[in-house]
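Preliminary data (for renewal application), heme C complex.
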Amino acid sequence: MKRIALAVMGAMSAMVAGSALAAAPDWSKVTERKVKLFYPGQSGMEWIMNKADHSAVPDIVDKKRACAKCHEGDADEIGDKIVAGKPVGSSKTVLEPKPPAGKVGWIPATFKAAHDGEKLYVRFEWVPPKNGDVKMDKKNEVKVTMMFDGGGTVEGADLNGCWNTCHNDLRSMKDAKDDKKTKYTKGGSLDGGKFMDLIQYRSGKGEKPVDGYVTDKRYMEGGKGLVKAEGVKEGNKWVVTFERALAGGGKGDHAITTDKIYNFGFAIHEDFTEARYHYVSLGYQFGLDKTVEGVKYYYNVTKQ
Ligand code: HEC
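Predicted structure:
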């Protein structure tokens, strides 16, 4: 069965600029990037950045090595171990105290992005793993979320990607005290762009795309840049696309310009999950029409 979620026209500004008339790119001509999305369990920032747990901390801090530099190759194995409740890291920590039965540790996804001078177009494609029978988020079989900074505006996001917003005291994490506490960035604020812009596609019937941001907590509204977020289940695969006005224009919207390199990451909540029970990417980077030599986790978003 084909499931199509409603596309919502946002951003009046984008329409005024005439970009609502622009067509989506010919995706067959856009470079694809295979990404391993893996199950992170309770690997919050405090665990990742604690040397006793993770021997790589000096490499991250002193040598400025990004997660993807070391883990693009083994992200699948990390996910497999964590989801099964196996001990990981130097401290041999179990990062999933209640391993969900039958859940796979990772999913391969294909990422593509393009722009037309007015809008950024992003496309995710993956084959969903087998569904279980627990439905945490009853409305949405699938949610796809992308977060990005304002081009180096969030300290550390170039090294730790979405982990920047993931902490041990969040709901469903190890030290949770408040089951409503959502992700945040340390020292996050709308001033000076110290926030992660957040856009989300939700598959449920009647559900609207989310255009929010993350500062001291996660805000699920305020943005005006997201023009569309659509998802289609084609046979056994999901295809989710976003259209985002480059200029942004709302609260918690970063303007995307050609002179910067943006840090981003994304997550897929598969199988009616919520909170930390998602698959996540390591931190990646993108720029518009810009070649960056030697950084494998960089994606050049070219004009179509
Ligand atoms: C310099 C290479 C390097 C970098 C950079 C790095 N790691 Fe690691 N990571 C390792 C090694 C080596 C291990 C194995 C355990 C250890 O030595 O602590 C590991 C273990 C892990 C584990 C546990 C899985 C396992 O198999 O033990 C997770 C989760 C993890 N890293 C996530 C991250 C994240 C997220 C980042 C970015 C903030 C990151 N790593 C950056 C090298 C790295």
